[in-house]
Design brief:
The chain is α+β, with helices and mostly antiparallel strands. It has two domains: 6-197 and 302-425, FAD/NAD(P)-binding domain, CATH 3.50.50.60; 204-291, no CATH class. The chain has helices spanning 14-25, 53-74, 98-108, 155-161, 172-175, 181-184, 215-224, 252-256, 275-278, 334-353, 365-378, 392-400, 408-417, and strands at residues 6-10, 29-33, 48-49, 77-84, 87-93, 112-114, 119-125, 128-134, 139-141, 144-147, 189-190, 201-202, 206-208, 226-230, 257-262, 266-268, 289-291, 301-302, 306-307, 321-323. A five-stranded parallel β-sheet has the order 6-2-1-10-20, with helices on one face. Helix 1 packs parallel to helix 10, helix 2 crosses helix 10 (334-353) and helix 2 (53-74) packs across helix 13. It binds flavin-adenine dinucleotide (FAD).
């Protein structure tokens, strides 16, 4: 019987949570270290799932053996199968309820979660990390590590590249800023580089307090999940679309209208909107932001700390560190984080046991997305563009290569043809 490997995951966002489930399903002892007092990181404020090609990627990951994550998410959906400009068959999860449901799922799976456990250092021998060191001084050793610390902030980056600390859900001032295991272990990182030469990207949506909107808007949101309010012409700012990390929402409709989605909070599909201007729109006279608290001024900056990695998600120059989520490259979204999290969790166990790690084939949308980011690294243009299954360039690639499908039977068939059905559910030791 093979030894039981110990996997330490740093960062409990969607990527870290998916990696934890996957490594546990592969038979490992799993420790998840989270800097704050809640799981899900940026996922505490998002909510949009299954829109456009994300439906394909979610079904693929389910058939690969990651279904329990999507089954848990099912319980949290407030609205299913809705459309808004440029996006079809979306489901919206409840951002207030989702964290406790995922926390329960991980605990049921015997994942050991350490909250308020910010990694502040590493101990290593050349390319091999031996343990991570928490701010408290506690040393946590493992066979393999996964850096799932995301790319949001820290405040220095929001000051340098954005509009300052806007008090977003990452709560750096309270829990200490994001730090990167990859960087502490001496590996290189890169940033998204925008066309104008500036670095990083601004988060693309805000949250409003539901009860601060007119009763009519509240009612419509509850019923339909989406409300589109045309903006008076003097409040239309198309130049703001370029700031967005989520290029799938950089369409004129998102500048000409206020687009609201009901995620438990009210998701406002724009990176920021001056409060005094927003209050001029009928129905918004009393409106207030709930995230970021300074959403009238700006939003958090992201995609400033990505790792060079191979197609198994192992970091270049480090023998036992993998990456997942935004850390593995400019792939934006909960689904993108979950998909890469599952692969990293599985492969962390493969590396610990010395068995062949998995490379997802390009015949699957998830394999194609991971390969596309890898191609940018190989062509020496890291951070040249961002990727998502849900729109912009990569969704177009999915359409052109017949990768987009919403038919579960067709996707099950593709996964089966790749000989990978249930791979994330197989114990490796
Ligand atoms: C405002 C906003 C709205 C969004 N809306 C959507 C949406 O509707 N749909 C969608 O699909 N995507 C959305 N996204 C994008 C999506 O949320 C992210 O791409 C994805 O969740 C990133 O997940 P992650 O796990 O890679 O990183 P994160 O969510 O950033 O998680 C990283 C975690 O690591 C922890 N951490 C950092 N440093 C350390 C350390 N040193 N020690 C321990 N822990 C550490 C952090 O506390 C955090 O919990 C949104 C993002 C934002 C910011």
């Amino acid at each position: 019987m093979a030894k039981i490997p110990r996997i330490v995951i740093v960062g409990g966002g969607w990527a870290g949570c998916a990696a934890a489930i996957s490594a546990q399903q592969a038979g490992a002892e799993v420790i998840l270290l989270e800097r704050t007092d809640m799981l899900l990181g940026a996922g505490l404020v998002g909510g949009i799932m299954l829109n456009n090609g994300r439906m394909t990627a979610a079904l693929e990951t389910s058939f690969l053996g990651g279904h329990i994550m999507f089954e848990a998410l099912e319980k949290t959906y407030r609205h299913r199968n809705i459309s808004f400009p440029g996006h079809d068959h979306a489901s919206l999860y409840d951002v207030i309820k989702v964290e406790s449901i995922i926390r329960h799922l991980l605990k049921q799976r015997d994942v050991q979660i350490y909250f308020r456990s910010r990694v502040a250092g590493v101990s290593q021998t050349k390319e091999q990390v031996e343990s991570v060191i928490l701010e408290s001084g506690e040393v946590v050793p493992a066979d393999t590590f996964i850096d799932a610390t995301g790319t949001s902030g820290p405040p220095g980056n929001c000051w340098r590249h954005g509009h300052g600390c806007v008090l977003c859900i990452q709560r750096c001032p309270a829990f200490g800023p994001r730090t990167s295991l990859v960087k502490m272990a001496g590996a290189e990182e890169y940033s998204l580089l925008k066309l104008d030469g500036s670095f990083g990207a601004m988060s693309g949506s805000c949250k409003l307090c539901p009860e601060s909107l007119s009763l009519e808007i509240q009612e419509r949101l509850k019923q339909c999940g989406v409300v589109v309010v045309p903006l008076p012409i003097d409040l239309v700012r198309p130049q703001k679309l370029k700031l967005k990390v989520c290029q799938q929402y950089a369409q004129n409709e998102f500048a000409a209208n206020i687009i609201l989605l009901d995620t438990g909070a009210v998701k406002l599909m724009t990176p920021f909107f001056p409060l005094e201007a927003l209050r001029q729109v009928p129905g918004f006279e009393l409106v207030r932001y709930s995230d970021p608290l300074a959403g009238g001024q700006g939003n958090s900056m992201r995609l400033l700390a990505m790792a060079y990695r191979d197609s198994t998600l192992k970091v270049d120059g480090l023998s036992n560190v993998l990456v997942a989520g935004e850390k593995q490259g400019p792939a934006v979204g909960h689904t993108e984080a979950i998909v890469t999290g599952f692969l990293a969790g599985h492969n962390a166990v493969c590396y610990a046991l010395g068995i062949e790690p998995l490379i997802l084939p390009k015949a699957l949308a998830s394999g194609a997305l991971i390969a596309a980011i890898g191609d940018d690294l190989e062509r020496n243009r890291p951070g040249y563009q961002s990727y998502t299954f849900s729109g912009a360039g990569f969704f177009q690639t999915m359409l052109e290569n017949n990768l987009y499908s919403t038919d579960p039977n067709q996707i099950a068939e593709r996964v089966a043809t790749s000989n990978l059905t249930g791979i994330y559910n197989q114990a490796l030791c």
